[in-house]
Design a protein that fits this description.
The complex is a heterodimer of chains A (235) and B (274).
Chain A (H helix, E strand, L loop, with lengths): L6 H33 L3 H32 L3 H29 L1 H5 L5 H26 L3 H9 L1 H21 L4 H33 L21
Chain B lengths: L8 H12 L4 E12 L2 E12 L3 E5 L6 H7 L10 E9 L2 E2 L7 H7 E4 L10 H11 L6 H14 L3 H4 L12 H13 L5 E5 L7 H14 L4 E5 L3 H7 L2 E6 L2 E7 H6 L4 H7 L5
Classes of the chains: A mainly alpha (235), B alpha/beta (274).
Chain lengths: 235, 274
């Protein structure tokens, strides 16, 4: 895509794209730190994630402000208009990812009082790894202007759903084995659910990015593998 | 004027789309070309104008959009070395046919220009002029009714009803342009051509004219040339993009301004041209 006749228009667009990148980078480190603080456990790191959420909120406000000013000043059309509206919507999802990472961090102290079985820690860590790959992947595919990559990434959310179902069952087992695990496992279940929700927000971002690039909406339905809502037959 | 026996493929496809949407074709341009002397200014334009819709013609200066607009009521006939080829029909009738009465054609296809150009006459006579020469009013009462209804349709009546005998040139720019629209309406045209009708108006007068265009659509078919992307997006249902004398792309306005097919349209509407 060529440059605008008015160069300041390009600078305004670049500033907004830069803010989206900053938000993605922050979201990624918040999810990473929140998971690490949960597994180690590390209260100080968890506290840092909580404080980073305020930075995320202020980035989103700045992006909204710049986007609205740009619309007012330049009346963007076609792909420029899609890029601005897309950035506003992506920022909304990234801000929610920050909230969910903060929610995980806030449970660190509650979970930390009990010992987490090593296998369970590994399961949650694996799930977090998948989520982090998705967060990183979405910005890479968007930067590479690859609609196909975004569709693939959206479909890969399925893997997170599968992992979440497995963690859910694992946690149930621990709770059934020893009632003293119930408090910690319930907190961990919320953490796993938060990771699964982060995956859903990444999917939204991929769908938005696809629309920005192509002007076409992806079909509403996509593969879902979260089976935790499926009734388990009585033993 | 070359008469083509069959419709072009482009138009045939568009006509099917229009028929499926229950839209009637009012005017049809087929392989329209315009020469000024040896220089060709317009190349093989195939364009359908849908009835009771606003069609916006956009494109950079010199792209041929005004040239095409002026072909639709044979305004190019007034230019000595201009030559039009291809075929243009109004309700299926070739408007460049030898038997066509050009004065009558221009009463069916009226025009509003960039700069408001009221006659140096009273407001009343500005409106009455057309109906008088076309013999559309049999009595003074008839003429009064035509003047009043035309001014009302142009949204100007309440502002001028107490000074109909004052000169039209004494009105503000926006009022003068609406007077010109009222003058065009007075002869009961079927199509109104507008060549950048708001380019000399302030934003409030522009908004009034745009509101008027939206109301007029109910009874008339409108083709408008505009340099304002926002105006084209606001007032039209169809948009046609011209570049270097060619029709680049035509389609529903909504699509043209959110996701156009052609890169030249994309570059032009997003301000990346040249």
């Amino acid at each position: 895509m060529g440059a605008h006749t008015v160069t300041a228009f390009d600078e305004d667009l670049q500033e907004i794209e830069g803010l989206v990148r900053d938000m993605v980078s922050l979201a990624r480190s918040m999810v990473d730190e929140a998971t690490q603080s949960l597994i180690v456990p590390d209260s100080a790191l968890a506290q840092r994630v909580v404080s980073e959420d305020a930075v995320m909120d202020s980035l989103q406000r700045r992006l909204d402000d710049r986007a609205i000013t740009l619309i007012g000043k330049r009346q963007p059309m076609a792909q420029d208009l899609r890029a601005i509206v897309g950035a506003i919507r992506m920022a909304g999802d990234l801000e929610r990812i920050g909230d969910l990472a903060k929610n995980i961090a806030k449970r660190v102290d509650a979970v930390g009082q009990s010992t987490m079985p090593r296998e369970l820690a590994r399961s949650i860590e694996d799930m977090a790894e998948l989520v982090l790959e998705q967060v990183q992947g979405v910005i890479e595919e968007y930067s590479a202007r690859s609609p196909e990559g975004l569709v693939r990434l959206r479909d890969e959310d399925e893997l997170i759903d599968v992992r979440y179902t497995s963690v859910f069952r694992e946690l149930l087992t621990y709770m059934m084995e020893d009632a003293r695990n119930i408090t910690a496992c319930t907190h961990l279940l919320f953490c796993a659910k938060n990771l699964e929700r982060i995956g859903d927000h990444v999917t939204n971002i991929a769908e938005n990015a696809y629309y920005v690039l192509t002007g076409e909406q992806l079909p509403v339905h996509r593969p879902k593998q979260d089976e935790t809502g499926v009734p388990v037959p009585a033993a | 004027m070359n008469v083509m026996s069959e419709t072009t493929l482009e138009n045939a496809v568009n006509e099917k789309v229009a028929a499926a949407a229950n839209e009637r074709i009012k005017m049809r341009g087929e392989k329209v070309g315009v020469f000024y002397g040896d220089k060709q200014a317009l190349f093989d334009v195939d364009l359908l104008v849908r009835q009771n819709q606003v069609t916006a013609l956009i494109g950079p200066s010199g792209c041929g959009k005004s040239t095409f607009l002026r072909c639709l009521n044979r305004m190019n006939d007034t230019i000595d070395n201009a030559r039009v080829v291809g075929k243009i029909t109004l309700d299926g009738e070739d408007i460049y046919d030898r038997d066509i009465d050009v004065v009558e054609l221009r009463s069916r296809v009226g025009m509003v220009f960039q700069k408001p150009n009221p006659f140096p006459k009273s407001i009343y006579d500005n409106i009455a002029y057309g109906p008088r020469i076309h013999g559309l009013a049999r009595s003074k009462a008839d003429m009064d009714a035509v003047v009043e209804s035309s001014l009302k349709r142009a949204g100007l009546f309440n502002e001028v009803k107490d000074r109909l005998n004052e000169p039209g040139t004494g009105l503000s720019g926006g009022q003068q342009q609406r007077l010109c629209i009222a003058r065009a309406i007075a002869v009961s045209p079927e199509v109104i051509l507008m060549d950048e009708p708001c380019s000399a108006l302030d934003p409030i007068a522009t908004a009034r004219v745009e509101e008027l265009i939206d109301e007029l659509r109910e009874n008339y078919t409108i083709v408008i040339v505009t340099h304002s992307m926002q105006q084209a997006a606001r007032v039209s249902q169809r948009t046609a993009m011209f570049h270097l004398g060619n029709l680049v792309e035509e389609g529903p306005t909504e699509k043209m301004f959110t996701n156009p097919d052609d890169k030249r349209t994309q570059d032009y509407i997003t301000g990346r041209f040249g």
